Each structure stands twice: as C-alpha cells, then as structure tokens.
Amino acid sequence: PGHRFQVSQLLSHLHSALGPDGDVLLQPYLSSWDELLKFMESLGPVAGFISQQVEHKASVIRRLAQREEAAEGDAYRSVRSMIGAELSRGLVSFRQQTPSGCRTLLRLHRALLWLQLFLKKVAEGPQEGGELRSPSSLCREAYREALAHHHSWLARRAADVAFMALPDRDALFQLVCARSQGEAGPLLDRAAEAIGEVYGRTQKAFEEHGMLELP
C-alpha cells in the first residue's frame, strides 16, 4: 500500500501544506509531490516524460532545506520564507538561470497546474453528447493549457506521443479505488480543489515578487 497512490494521503499532505497567512509549507508540499509521483508513474510512459524532472527538482529543494537546517536556519520552511531569504541573499536572478530554490519551485509549480487541470477534467461528467472524453485527450489538453508554452518543440512532441499511451478511465478509477465515474468524480474533484488551493497560494507569492517568468 505504501507504494501505491492514495488520494487520502495526497489530501492529507496538501492540507498540511497550508500555512498561516496564505503561506505554503515546503515539507508537506514536497510530500504531496511524492504522492503525485506515484500517480504519474501509474499512468505509464507519460511518467518518464515529466516525473524525472519533478523528482529531480523536489530533491534540489530538499537538499537546500537540509543544508539550511544543518546551519540551524529555517529559510526553506515555507514558500514565502524561501523567497524572502533567497532574494535577500542574492541567489535569485531575473536575467539568467540559477540553481535557486525559487526557480526550481517555479518549475514544480507549473507542473502542479497541469496535474490539477488534468484531475479536474477527468472528474467532470460527460459532454453534451453524453460521452466521456478519454484521459489521453484530457491530459493533452491540460498540458497544452499549463505547460506546453514553457517547453521546447521537441519536448511538446514527446509529450504528445506519451499521452497517447495513457490508460483508459477504468484504469484511472482503479487508481483511486473507484468503480465508476460517479464514484471517482467527487474524489478527483476534491484532489483538484486541494491542489488548486496550494497552487493559488504559491502563484500569489510568486506574483508578488515578479517571479512567474524566472529564466
């Protein structure tokens, strides 16, 4: 069970990530990603396309936090504390790529929107004609809305190919221990809503500091 995606675990981590004053606590935020990685890996080839990058970026932030803790600091306790500390230490560049926690988190942040949109789209009921769209087309649509414009042409092509191999709805239902759209929809909707809250808080913090387009 510890190696399988669990919606309840994801929700628990996401709720724990909600800090005071609209902040996001980084440790449970990264734990949320651990759970989402299990979900992505269950989707097949699409996981290899994005999950390796996600895993790498999460480990970068964890290493920064560990280094800070070793120095008895708490700069990487939350999104806002990290932004404040890295700006004051001159670690963030608005002109060139740097290995800052802020830049790394921004990449995770963008990927989180993709997953949130995907889960929300799968949670929705049938279209007007009464048909449910395939997870493959919904995942592609979410990717184009959230991530495609940040990726190279080659990466976008690779994504399109990966999405074609996405499992069908029945397989997705099994991932959340549901037997039908009626059972899965509310679960996925709750997950999308919880992700949306964390995403919105992080978005606001980045916006306030003009960091949404860090190179």
Verbal overview:
This is Si:ch73-269m23.5. It comes from Scleropages formosus. It is a single chain. By secondary structure, the protein is mainly α. The chain has a single domain, classed as Glycolipid transfer protein, GLTP (Orthogonal Bundle), CATH 1.10.3520. 67% of the residues lie in helices and 0% in strands. The chain contains 9 helices and no strands. It has helices at residues 7-16, 26-42, 45-70, 79-88, 101-123, 135-146, 153-164, 169-175, 181-208. The longest helix is centred in the last third of the chain and has 28 residues, at 181-208. The radius of gyration is 18 Å and the shape is globular. The mean pLDDT is 88.
Beta-strand proportion: under 5%
H/E element order:
HHHHHHHHH
Structural class: mainly alpha
Number of domains: 1
Overall pLDDT score = 88
CATH topology: Glycolipid transfer protein, GLTP
Taking all Cα atoms into account, the compactness measure Rg is: 18 Å
Indicate the percent of residues in helices. Answer: 55-70%
Enumerate how many helices there are, as a single number. Answer: 9
CATH H-level superfamily title: Glycolipid transfer protein
CATH architectural grouping = Orthogonal Bundle
In total, the number of strands is: 0
Detail the poorly predicted runs: none
CATH class: Mainly Alpha
Separation, N- and C-terminal Cα atoms: 39 Å
Bulk shape: globular
Determine the oligomeric state from the structure.
single chain
